[in-house]
């Protein structure tokens, strides 16, 4: 069965030094990069993926999602603004192996990669189905926010879904643990 890897929001603003940093973000970027290059080179120990895609926060004016006084639940500091260095992939992550990038949240908050679309406007779920994908692995930033939302939507879309927790970074231990419990309860495999 065709399998996809979905790399969630490994962007400068979500890594150390960014406007909304998650501890371990740069490490996760490097580990995903290593996995992608082993996959691309088809090395003997590489995982088997038929397609590899990425999601990006891509904010122009997301309304109340941005705030000068964020509550970190419904509102956040300005991050991943289109055209800024913060929106770019982290330098530890080479985007060359990606088959496609899905952009989300231009004018609204968007946590799930399944809210994302290609530059041509194709939604992630449709793009995966057009390639016969049935199994989805998810990794990236942050375990307790966008990874969680992406994995839950993947499962609800009918994909057999697995989260690669070693290649994820979470904001906080308690919310990460709660997200893992929620994902497992929704039928997501936790690896």
UniProtKB/TrEMBL annotation:
Q: Which UniProt keywords apply?
A: Hydrolase, Metal-binding, Pyridine nucleotide biosynthesis
UniProt-recorded Gene Ontology molecular function terms: metal ion binding; nicotinamidase activity
- Kindly report, in one word, the top-level EC class recorded for this enzyme: hydrolase
Q: Which InterPro entries match?
A: Isochorismatase-like_dom, Isochorismatase-like_sf, Isochorismatase_Nicotinamidase
Q: What is its EC number?
A: 3.5.1.19
Query: By its UniProt entry, which Pfam families does this protein fall under?
Result: Isochorismatase
Q: In which pathway does it act?
A: Cofactor biosynthesis; nicotinate biosynthesis; nicotinate from nicotinamide: step 1/1
Q: Which GO terms describe its biological process?
A: pyridine nucleotide biosynthetic process
**Chain ranges of the Isochorismatase-like domain:** 4-190
The UniProt entry, under PANTHER family, shows: LD05707P (PTHR11080:SF2), PYRAZINAMIDASE/NICOTINAMIDASE (PTHR11080)
The UniProt family comment states: Belongs to the isochorismatase family.
Return the protein name. Answer: nicotinamidase
Protein's organism? Nocardioides ganghwensis
């Amino acid at each position: 069965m065709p399998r996809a890897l979905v790399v969630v929001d490994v962007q400068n603003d979500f890594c150390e030094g960014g406007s909304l940093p998650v501890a371990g973000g740069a490490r996760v970027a490097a580990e995903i990069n290593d996995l992608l290059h082993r996959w691309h080179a088809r090395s003997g120990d590489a995982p088997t993926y038929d397609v590899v895609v990425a999601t990006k926060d891509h904010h122009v004016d997301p309304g109340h999602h941005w705030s000068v006084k964020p509550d970190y639940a419904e509102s956040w500091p300005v991050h991943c603004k289109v055209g800024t260095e913060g929106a770019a992939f982290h330098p530890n992550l080479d985007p060359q192996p990606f088959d496609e990038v899905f952009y989300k949240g231009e004018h609204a908050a968007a946590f799930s990669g399944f809210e994302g679309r290609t530059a041509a406007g194709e939604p992630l779920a449709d793009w995966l189905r057009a390639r016969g994908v049935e199994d989805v692995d998810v990794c990236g930033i942050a375990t307790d926010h966008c990874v969680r939302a992406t994995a839950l939507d993947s499962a609800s879309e009918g994909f057999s879904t697995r989260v690669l927790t070693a290649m994820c970074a979470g904001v906080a231990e308690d919310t990460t643990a709660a997200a893992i419990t929620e994902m497992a309860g929704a039928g997501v495999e936790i690896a």
